[in-house]
Design brief:
heterodimer; A: mainly beta; Immunoglobulin-like; 12 strands; 52% strand; B: mainly beta; seven-stranded mixed β-sheet; four-stranded antiparallel β-sheet; 11 strands
Chain lengths: 114, 114
């Protein structure tokens, strides 16, 4: 069965610091990978997605993620965070034959101090 | 940008009562999903729906749950006899295609069972 693990549950950074959030998944077949963000009181929004091709994926708001197949990882990065990046970040994986469901990680709550 | 809309935003109900959570997916989307997020926990898959039938469901989605697309626009989740542990945020999502298309989420319905 697929699973997704996010190693950091809470991260606190100062503005302008660099961010890297870890995500590992367990499924060995072809997968589609996503990062979603949930700002306080809002719904889940797609940050970026990986289906195939260039393993370095650029998303909205300056975020990027790198797919490393050998490590089953899809870490999220941002070189310089802003106070407005305070939110919860979810990694998700979809894939495998006969399934359309997305499996989400437990989320990482990011707080950026102004 | 088209949105997935959910009503109500908050629902309080007594244990044993039936609730219906409503969702209007994006109009040209074909795949519909319900997820839930118990406070402080991860986003969990409940059910996926395509071509007017359930395509996949989780172990959470037992006989107390049902989904329906009654009129070609609404997508509803019914909980027949609510339990305290059903208290959660319920998210509806839709996508154009299956696993290769990102999910678009609604703002969620916060269900509180007392």
């Amino acid at each position: 069965a697929q699973s997704v693990s996010q190693h950091n549950h809470h991260v606190i950074l100062s503005e302008a610091a660099s961010l890297e959030l870890g995500c590992n998944y367990s499924y060995g077949g072809t997968v589609n990978l996503f990062w979603y963000v949930q700002y306080p009181g809002q719904h889940l929004q797609l940050l970026l997605k990986y289906f195939s091709g260039d393993p370095l994926v650029k998303g909205i708001k300056g975020f990027e993620a790198e797919f490393i197949k050998s490590k089953f990882s899809f870490n999220l990065r941002k070189p310089s965070v802003q106070w407005s990046d305070t939110a919860e970040y979810f990694c998700a994986v979809a894939g495998g034959s006969g399934t359309y469901k997305y499996i989400f990680g437990t989320g990482t709550r990011l707080k950026v101090l102004a | 940008e088209p949105e997935v809309t959910q009503t109500p935003s908050h629902q309080v109900t007594q244990m044993g009562q039936e609730v219906i959570l409503r969702c209007v997916p994006i109009s040209n989307h074909l795949y519909f999903y319900w997820y839930r997020q118990i406070l402080g926990q991860k986003v969990e898959f409940l059910v996926s729906f395509y071509n007017n039938e359930i395509s996949e469901k989780s172990e959470i989605f037992d006989d107390q749950f049902s989904v329906e697309r009654p009129d070609g626009s609404n997508f509803t989740l019914k909980i027949r006899s609510t339990k305290l542990e059903d208290s959660a945020m319920y998210f509806c999502a839709s996508s154009v295609g299956g696993v290769n298309s990102p999910l678009h989420f609604g703002n969620g319905t916060r269900l509180t069972v007392t």
